[in-house]
Design brief:
- It contains eleven helices and no strands.
- The radius of gyration is 31 Å and the shape is elongated.
- The protein has helices at residues 3-34, 38-65, 69-81, 85-89, 92-106, 110-123, 128-140, 144-157, 162-174, 178-191, 196-220.
- The termini are far apart.
- With 221 residues, the protein is an all-alpha fold.
Amino acid sequence: MDFKKFLIILAVFLSALLIVQPALSAANMTEVLTGKNVASVTNYTDDLEKDTANKFYNYGEQSLNNREFENAIAYFDQALAANITLLRKTDALLYLYRDKGYAQIQLGKYSDAVATLDEGLASYPTDAMLWNNKGYALERLGKTQDALMSYDKSVSFDRNYTMAHINRGNVLSQMGRYTEAVAAYNQANTTDPFNSAAAKGLEAAKKGEAESARTTTFLLV
């Protein structure tokens, strides 16, 4: 074969390859867009949904920081309605339940707060803050015994959680169990020696304990 003809044929062949390759890439992309490549479409959709949940979570946190509690709750609900896979892989889902419950408490929606915190506890049953906040909501609903049980759970998972010890002392004082209240406030003073709420509660509980002792002595006499 003539060498010049060979070079011409080779050049035509290489040009054909360069033309076909982009066509193949376009065909592969068509498979993705038309659903033929299902795995690729699913992964892309999942990523969008994860980003959506995270976006609404961040909006909720911003609203909470601005004390826009109704808006925060609405954004948190939108986050929960989206794909929460990404939130679940981090601590964001835990914070969402904590903060949504907190916003509901701030609005006086105590029953709603209990429901939210129970949802959180279903996924994070050992979280001390969820138990503490549930106890506070129950306390505001007048369910003192249930509140005490929640505070007990809270301090069992975090012995250094000062606020839970204070709240536990408050409930025990309300129930007239002053000796136990004194112990709770003392524990709070141990974890936070300069906490004014613990000091105030301790003083009141000691007075209640002393008065209760005097009453008991009077009755015995």
